[in-house]
Task: inverse folding
């Protein structure tokens, strides 16, 4: 049986999805500020389907896009975690790290805090040789998280096959972090 991986950071709990997460997740997915760099916001049905997919992938593999909630108040703030992209990408196969937080939780360091812990899970528990991250080139907030995590921008820009041709969101940039780079960074950080 697969071991369910859940973990905590200083301020957050990263856990499996619960039915109660669907409502705040739908609110987040309907928010144009949160969805600015996606082709479309998600309606309730699409949002619930995504929550279900995240939940079943975690149940199946033990890891995935975990719900992030505050430890202090148990508020759902969004998701952060590891995922095998569904799309066939120029650098597939790969495992990506990704995040999506409700707008009121931006600017507090939550995404980076949760993602640092998710990288540790990926490298130490899952023994991944590399974790990638990618986003539409204009998504500077997301790129800044990648840089805060010590991920390295590559020259491998690519057109995301799930974004319509002609959309200004189609061009994506790619960041990589190898296990060796991550270990070296841990040593520097002491
Ligand atoms: C991408 C996203 C997760 C980034 O969130 P974020 O809050 O900017 O990222 P961080 O967690 O790294 O927070 C950093 C900010 O918190 C501030 N901060 C406040 N308290 C902090 C603390 N205790 N520790 C660290 N940083 C703190 C930092 O100064 C920084 O502020 P700044 O934005 O003014 O520079 C968020 O914008 C989002 O969900 N976007 C929509 C979804 C999306 O685009 N996902 C990516 C698709 S590929």
Result:
């Amino acid at each position: 049986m697969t071991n369910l991986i859940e973990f905590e950071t200083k301020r957050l709990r990263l856990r499996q999805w619960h039915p109660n997460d669907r409502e705040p997740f739908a609110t987040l997915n309907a928010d144009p500020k949160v969805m600015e760099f996606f082709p479309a916001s998600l309606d309730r049905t699409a949002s619930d389907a995504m929550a279900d997919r995240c939940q079943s992938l975690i149940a199946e593999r033990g890891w995935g896009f975990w719900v992030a909630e505050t430890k202090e108040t148990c508020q759902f703030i969004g998701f952060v975690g590891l995922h095998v992209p569904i799309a066939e990408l120029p650098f597939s196969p790969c495992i990506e790290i990704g995040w999506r937080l409700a707008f009121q939780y931006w600017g507090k360091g939550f995404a980076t805090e949760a993602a640092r812990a998710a990288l540790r899970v990926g490298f130490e528990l899952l023994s991944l040789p590399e974790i990638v991250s990618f986003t539409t080139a204009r998504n500077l907030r997301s790129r800044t998280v990648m840089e805060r995590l010590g991920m390295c921008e590559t020259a491998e820009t690519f057109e995301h096959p799930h974004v319509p041709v002609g959309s200004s969101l189609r061009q994506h940039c790619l960041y990589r972090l190898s296990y060796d780079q991550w270990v070296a960074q841990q040593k520097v950080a002491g």
Remarks:
- The helical segments are 22-29, 44-61, 110-125, 140-148, 179-189.
- Residues 7-189 form a domain with the Aminopeptidase fold (CATH 3.40.630.30).
